[in-house]
Amino acid sequence: MPGQGRANALVVVVVVVAEILLLALFVVPTDAQSLGGYCLNDNPFSGEKDCTQFADDTPKDAASSACAVGLAMPGQSGEYSESGRCPLYSTPASFGGECSRVTEQGISVKSVLALSDGGPFGDCAGIEQVCTTFIQGEFLPSPACGGSLEDAVGGEEVGGKTESGPSSNGGSEDLPDKQRRNTIAVDVETLADGFEFTEGPVWIPATGADPSLPPSTLLFSDMRADTIFAWSDERGLETFANDSLGANGKALDGEGRLVSFRHGPRDVVRGAAMESATVLADNFQGKRLNSPNDGAVSPADGSVYFSDPIWGIFIRDPQGMELDRHSVYRISPDDGEVTEVLPNTAMPNGIAFSQDGEVLFVSDTGGLAVHPNPDLAATEPPATIKAWRLDNATGGVVDPDGPLWAIEDFSDGMCVNDRGLWTTRGGMAPPKHGPPGLVLRDPKNGEEIGYIDIEDPTNVECNAEDGKIYVTAANKVVRVTLLE
Ligand SMILES: *[C@@H]1O[C@H](CO)[C@@H](O)[C@H](O)[C@H]1NC(C)=O
Ligand SMILES: *[C@@H]1O[C@H](CO)[C@@H](O)[C@H](O)[C@H]1NC(C)=O
């Protein structure tokens, strides 16, 4: 998934959302209402305030209502100031920049992003990534992050200081040296470039797949463009679906049909056409899923396992969370029943199976503070990849408390082939986990057995019939040819 926010450490990430009724307010804005202002809300996990700046021409009532109904965190209502600017603007050393976006209700907002001391988001590259992948906005760097953003530190300030200039914890020159050296001989080629945020690669084989899917083709999503693309050697880049409905992860089932995990309708579906696909799951015990992110089909029995974090809700519908947890689920191939496999993971993400289907691999991007379970939120679970022995009678894990192994790493998508477990380590990974790239692990113990330098990988497909590895990586898609 995109993203991976980590609201605790950082920041001041805020996505403003207004209720539908705001649309009505938009119909009759008057000059008297045009005041801009900002919205502050508590971040109960970091103890900091998050701040969102409204555009100057935002009708006061619309801004006030947007602030009242909640910001980045579902249920956290804010305090609206009808004029002035987010206090962070006047703290040049920690003001990293703005993340600008227009909400679905048409309100222009800027999340004001703070540089924090250390941590994965302690630098400008980190907060830029938070902006582009998590908030899905446009990043405008402050002077501390090498940008201009003139009005940020000038003009009317709240609380006053206006000194500017680079800060010691900003600037890409301060980034730690990243040692990036392939340990496997490979050729890496960029197949297509210029996307906003790519995800969910799946290879459609030459034969055996649903005939309405393009053969010998990679499908992948550009999440921010809500588009599914197709890439093949023969035809190059094409559009597969103009409206992806937020399809993120994708998989093929045993009969070669496409299974998609979608943020938009918050469901798991089967079928090539996004608008008419068959819904396999959209709720658990009557409550709507959060935003299915990624999943895989069991090679043992054809059941579908998927992760259900809240990234998609953040962006689209922060008030709409119905479940009180972020879990991994299974859809039975027999009766379609949805069961909970791993209750209460912190922020589950990539899913993969061992080749015999007996072991389930789950990456949990952890630490995201924004968790309805206060125990989990308070403990700030680390980002992990874990392997779970499956009980093939029930499809559940044999021991919910005891994974076969657990490795600390910040990983998004994963897949398994003859070489092992391929995991992505994205650009937001804390430096302690190692440089971003594609990491090959031993499925038996999780140990790293190979590393390939790829910038900002999000997800990986390693079961193409050509034996090559396809990686979605931020704004591009790359193909890795193994030379050994
Ligand atoms: C996507 O939209 C374009 C422009 O309207 C259209 O030409 C194209 O056929 C559409 N592609 C698909 C796969 O629907
Ligand atoms: C579980 O799988 C193993 C290995 O494939 C098999 O030997 C065993 O009979 C299965 N058990 C059940 C209850 O299906």
Automatic annotation (TrEMBL):
Superkingdom of this protein's organism: Eukaryota
Protein known as: Gluconolactonase
Record keywords: Hydrolase, Membrane, Transmembrane, Transmembrane helix
Domain SMP-30/Gluconolactonase/LRE-like region positions: 197-425
GO molecular function, one term: hydrolase activity
InterPro entries named among the record's database cross-references: 6-blade_b-propeller_TolB-like (IPR011042), SGL (IPR013658), SMP-30/CGR1_Lactonase (IPR051262)
Stretch list, region Disordered: 148-180
PANTHER family listed in its UniProt record: LACTONASE DRP35, LIPOPROTEIN-RELATED
Organism annotation: Chloropicon roscoffensis
Chain segments annotated as transmembrane: 7-28
